[in-house]
Specification:
This protein has eleven helices and 13 strands. By secondary structure, it is of the alpha/beta class.
Length: 331
């Protein structure tokens, strides 16, 4: 089988993703750019299909044939774990691997604002980490959870699809669950998690209205809730959440968000000036009494301008983050 050799080579080259598609040479994504592995031959559709099926259990094969795509995680012994997505395209299957570091980056190494360290003292709040795939959302969220694990004695429950970083208990007790392995859905898991004496809940991704309703309920019942969303701009995130709900529920959701939301972190990766790697740029919205009032009164269009006015060590915009990185000659 060629896949283990390709994965080892990807790790040696610090690839962020490995992409295998029929009738193509293997590709690595390095520093945001696709690079072909010329030392390998082109995968025929038949060869790749056999390699992919070799990775899947019977249960996973059955699920894939029914849904035509599947997410899971694998471990290359003594090397690394990988998040895996298998999908159907044209006449063949495709597969993408994302390496998961065995050691979580320290909070300080990520370049996030120091105010977030206050998180270990918070309870009954909702924290959203946003932007697209590959912007370190899960790394940021997991690092924040591990910081709590190091600093506080909490009961932490995660729901992931699939499990990425594997936590070890420190001061806290952590339980990790995977959709389709330990529960049937995010919604089902979250409903029962509220009965399990949790203090911190980490939700891999907000995918539907009911999950969001339950997350807000959890934040209102003495849980610190982390979740990711695929949105840009911190202020736009709030508008998108409200727009997800039917019109007759939006006033209630605005009220709940104004009370429960504490931080929205929007982040992206930008190439360094020397193109050696990418660095994290971010935007942080803090829900103070003025922001809460704007959310409650449906004045979301004023939030971005207010963030620019109040930008400082605590709240700041993406433009300010990029300006800082530019002035430091990092990008």
């Amino acid at each position: 089988m060629l896949i283990p050799k390709i994965l080892k080579l990807a790790l040696d080259n610090n690839a962020s993703d490995i992409i295998l598609s029929g009738d193509s040479k293997p590709c690595l994504k390095i520093n945001g750019d696709v690079q072909y592995l010329d030392e390998f031959d082109i995968f025929s559709a038949e060869e790749l299909n056999i390699e992919i099926m070799w990775l899947l259990s019977e249960k996973q094969q059955s699920k894939f044939k029914k849904e035509l795509e599947i997410d899971f995680a694998i471990e290359l012994k003594d090397y690394a774990r990988f998040r895996v997505n298998v999908f159907s395209e044209n006449k063949w299957y495709g597969i993408v691997f994302r390496p998961i570091k065995s050691q979580l980056p320290s909070y300080d190494s990520l370049g996030l604002p120091k105010i977030l360290k206050r998180i270990s003292r918070k309870k009954s709040w909702l924290i959203l980490v946003t932007w697209s795939v590959g912007s370190w959302k899960s790394t940021t969220m997991s690092s924040l959870v591990d910081y709590i694990n190091t600093e506080s004695s909490k009961h932490i429950i995660t729901i992931e699809d699939p499990i990425e970083f594997v936590f070890s208990n420190k001061k806290s007790l952590i339980e990790q669950r995977e959709v389709w392995v330990h529960t049937q859905s995010f919604e089902n898991w979250l409903k029962y998690a509220l009965r399990q004496a949790s203090d911190v809940i980490m939700i891999w991704e907000m995918r539907d209205l009911e999950t969001f309703r339950l997350a807000l309920r959890a934040a209102e019942t003495w849980n610190l809730v982390f979740a990711t969303l695929h949105t840009s701009w911190a202020a736009r995130t709030i508008a998108r959440i409200i727009d997800m709900f039917p019109g007759d529920e939006q006033e209630q959701i605005r009220s709940q968000l104004s009370d429960s939301l504490i931080w929205v972190i929007w982040q992206d990766l930008i190439k360094k000036k020397d193109w050696s790697w990418r660095v994290l740029a971010s935007e942080l919205l803090i829900n103070n009494i003025w922001i809460a009032n704007m959310i409650r009164k449906d004045l979301n269009h004023l939030i971005q301008g207010s963030m620019e006015t109040w930008a400082g060590d605590w709240m700041y915009t993406m433009d300010k983050s990029i300006e800082y990185l530019t002035n430091k000659w990092i990008i």
